Amino acid sequence: MKIVVNWERCEANAVCVRAAPEVFRVDDDDRLHLLVDDVPSELRPKVEKAVRACPRGALSLEEP
Ligand code: SF4
User: Fold this and answer.
1) Per-residue pLDDT of the chain in tens (64 residues, 90 and over written 9)
2) In angstroms, rounded to a whole number, what is the distance separating the alpha carbons of residues 55 and 36?
3) Of 17, 22, 28, 50, which is the most buried if we count CB atoms within 10 A?
4) Which atom of ligand 1 is nearest to the CA of 24?
5) For the CA of 57, the nearest atom of ligand 1
6) Ligand 1, residues 15, 27, 60: which to mutate, most atoms within 8 A of Cβ?
7) Are 32 and 25 in contact (CB under 8 A)?
8) What CATH code is assigned to 2-62?
9) CA–centroid distance, residue 16 to ligand 1 (Å)
10) Which residue's CA is the nearest one to ligand 1's atom 5?
């Protein structure tokens, strides 16, 4: 499973970081980074929570 970020929508408010810090990081320049390319199954619940929590609707999931 891969995470797709709509970079036009993301405002780097780090809501997703709080939901899944293993996967998302916002740097000092307020830029979002994905820390994993392929989401391992054990992190899937956290990532799904982050997708639901994003107030900008900027995250979606892509199955291979
Ligand atoms: S929660 Fe959404 S808007 Fe906020 S940093 Fe994450 S992807 Fe961007």
Assistant:
1) 999 999 999 999 999 999 999 999 999 999 999 999 999 999 999 999 999 999 999 999 999 8
2) 21
3) 50
4) 6
5) 2
6) 15
7) yes
8) 3.30.70.20
9) 6
10) 12
